[in-house]
Protein 1
Amino acid sequence: MSTKYSFLFETSVIGNLEIPNRLVVAPMTRVSAEKDGTVGPLMKDYYKAFAAGGFGLIITEGLYTDQLYSQAYLDQPGIATQEQALSWEPVIKEVHDRNSVIFAQLMHAGALSQFNRFVGITKGPSAVQPLGEQMPFYHGSGPYQVPKAMTQQDIDAVIKGFSEAAVLAKNAGFDGVEIHGANGYLLDQFLTGYTNKRDDLYGGSIEGRLCIYREVANAVRAAVGDEFVIGFRFSQKKVNDIEHVWEDGEDAAKQAFSLMRDCAVDYIHTAEPNINDAAFSGSAPLSELAKKYSGLPVIANGGVSAPETANVTLKNEQADFVALGKIALANQDWPAVVKAEGILNTFDFSMLSPIANLSSAKNYFSLN
Ligand SMILES: Cc1cc2nc3c(=O)[nH]c(=O)nc-3n(C[C@H](O)[C@H](O)[C@H](O)COP(=O)(O)O)c2cc1C
């Protein structure tokens, strides 16, 4: 067994949870659910393979949180009903049987919804058409709809959706929830000046644009109690704007990450194209800023393939965990292979083509 990358394999802690190592599967939408948003037939073995391959923590793909405006994609799983939540029980059991930990990612699409079986329109902070075009590998095409601006009642329903989904996740046996505050989806639309033109308490200054994060965090914490793990994901880039940099620079990082500490959140997950890049001109990487301003455990994600990169990030205390996305798709057993000093596969976008679902990818995965 390799001792070369010892930092990867240390036991670590988030909240009251012990995580067997510092290797995390990043949340990845695979549009492979049943039509009613319950877990589809290929999903159990897909998630099981990551646990069998040695990942200490698995974060699920983004699950929609309500039967209103949260759904993003055709065949996306939800956690808006008891039935949807309970359909995860066999997945959770497989993961737990292999001593890994699993968090549900709770996601509201806002203006980036490409498909919603409950409603025909989209809603976001303001009536601003999203940049870019819908993603073909999630069955989308053409421009995004122009969303309707959310009313206070809509915002209250969003917050209720997150807290009820968190309770359903807890009762189904998930070890924690990660609230998706990144990548251009609803919460990030509130954080971003050009998609948030509101002049009420949810808009304006960085404090105002973070208001919904505070309200969601507080509502979820009140709903699940003190012990259940809650994390938030942040990014600067968006699926429909890969250039974006927070307009308030490091002050945004300070405000956002210290808010997480103040709201009794248990961890922060940062996603950047490359975990070692400076977040802002001349600054530390985003994960390091998250540690500095929150004092919480931080998961860093983005652009990692080689074990050396992950190991150095951990060794330098830039983060407490490293989350792997695409390279984990190519190597569901990345931790086991690295431990055995084996040879890793390279990722190839054909694994997500033409649709990013598990049936397209069947040849690449340990699926029956
Ligand atoms: C197919 C696919 C689906 C994704 N779905 C999600 C998602 O549901 N939630 C999320 O926060 N990020 C999602 N991401 C982003 C990844 O979590 C990760 O941030 C990104 O792939 C960069 O990490 P990597 O360089 O290790 O791949 C997705 C990425 C891919 C490739």
Note: Residues 26-29, 61-62, 105, 180, 182-183, 233, 271, 301-304, 324-327, 352, 356 surround flavin mononucleotide (CB under 6 Å).
Protein 2
Amino acid sequence: MRNSFRYCVPLILLWFSTFFFNPQLHAQILINEFMADPARDWDGDGEYSSRDDEWVEVINVGNADVDLAGFMISDGAEGYSWRYAFSGTLSPGEVFVVYGSDSRAWEEANDFPVYGLSLNNAGDRISIFRVAGNDTALVDHIDFVDNAAEDDRSVGRVAGDLQTWRQFDAWNVCPGSCNPPGNGCVPTPGFINDCITSAESVSWGAIKTRCGLNGD
Ligand SMILES: [Ca+2]
Ligand SMILES: [Ca+2]
Ligand SMILES: [Ca+2]
Ligand SMILES: [Ca+2]
């Protein structure tokens, strides 16, 4: 009895320390998908813009609501170049997409240089930080290379397999040397990364209608 007690207490402490102090378990907000080189009107304002139609999607992979106040998108590998500050709440499993036009509006409203998300087509880094008082903590980041920034290809985590990234290349098929590889699926800004296959030349609006997706 005593031996099992001595054995169990450290296990319980280990479980508690893992559960409460492992920063990985607190990284509930992850970058889920992004498009660095849009070639069509992704933000739905009726006009194509290489800046305003870029997008970054985040997901809440935890099991509790997350208050997004303090979460910010930074562009580039050097220091912080703030491009957008989130607000609102994200429920478990829910995604949220920020378009270049949202980023531009935030920059204009807060007197930042107006670059939009500035996802460089030659490769870049996207980071999510959480800022609380004087504490700025990196929450997630993704580096991408130039072949991941080709017309209308997004890069995203595979739904149900968050460690695996693919290029969603249905509308601009990867030649075989893509990093990450292509999966033949349509990009899904604002929706979980289910695989919708379509080599047809249809609009994102038509895809949403066909799939019964009404948000944006
Ligand atoms: Ca770009
Ligand atoms: Ca647009
Ligand atoms: Ca950039
Ligand atoms: Ca998505």
Note: The pocket of calcium ion (ligand 1) is lined by residues 36-37, 50, 54, 119, 121 (CB under 6 Å).
Protein 3
Amino acid sequence: MTTHAPQTPRSVTLPTSLDEAVAALAAMPAAVPVAGGTDLMAAVNKGQLRPAGLVGLGRISEIRGWRYLDGHALLGAGLTHARMGRPDFAALIPGLAAAARAAGPPQIRNAGTLGGNIASIAPTGDTLPVLAALEADLIIAGPEGSRREIPVAHLLAGRDMLGPAELIGYVRVPLLHAPQIFLKATGRTGPGRATASVAVVLDPARRGVRCAVGAIAPMPLRPLEAERWIASLIDWDGRRGLTTEALTAFGDYVAAACIPDPEPGLPGDEQPVHPPAVLHLRRTVAALARRALGRALS
Ligand SMILES: Cc1cc2nc3c(=O)[nH]c(=O)nc-3n(C[C@H](O)[C@H](O)[C@H](O)COP(=O)(O)OP(=O)(O)OC[C@H]3O[C@@H](n4cnc5c(N)ncnc54)[C@H](O)[C@@H]3O)c2cc1C
């Protein structure tokens, strides 16, 4: 077996603005951006990645905070999970704060960033289902000060990729002023990657329930029909509560939408069933969705 010793990148640039970072990437196309380094340096250390150069994003103060903009929050891509997990952020976007608090052990949360979590596009990225349910947009910085905005779902689905000298600058998230819940199953005690996760977001102004299921597919899945059905049962002007039966039916609906029944075989054949591991995953998704909606409405 051949093993590769990790190689030190030949150049490290530490820009202090987004545009400088983009310019550094344009000047050296073989360089890669690095924020907290929790994903990237793990790949370098394993010998999976040998960047010729690094463009560090850690000194770009403009992307380390957030600000308000037209009923939205403009979140800098350099926000760490630890920062997003704090109470002031949780009061603003509770679902994202809950996901950030669940993202790995403390040393990872102190270094790992929102932009890195998105750009890695890992199925287990904890912020991704929340951003999908919030229908967040990405503001992408490109050469010569250009900015373009795309739905986060387009990047996650591979419909729109980052160009060679482009960076995620900001994430635009609507401020809904309503409960948002993120729940995650890990299959182990303590911090761990999600085996399944569910984000539920209430949008009272549009009388909507938005839900996204993470970790069970390459990108978060939105069970749109289940969302519309359950939203039609909620008394938006009243107590907003639902019966236990309705919550259970919502969980089952979400799980069946995301992990459909296997295709029937030829006429006369028995209806095929999922293997036990898939059935277990489906039950997990159903339980997470039921609990998440129940908590959001309680
Ligand atoms: C032990 C361990 C446990 C973990 N547990 C979890 C977990 O439970 N949940 C979870 O979600 N994640 C987990 N992670 C993954 C990781 O910590 C997160 O994905 C983190 O948010 C990545 O952010 P970063 O700033 O460290 O990214 P980096 O490692 O710096 O970068 C990751 C990728 O994103 C690119 N990138 C970074 N910033 C930008 C930007 N602004 N624009 C464009 N591209 C960019 C980099 O080039 C690289 O390709 C874990 C990682 C480790 C090592």
Note: The chain has three domains: 11-56, 61-174, 180-297.
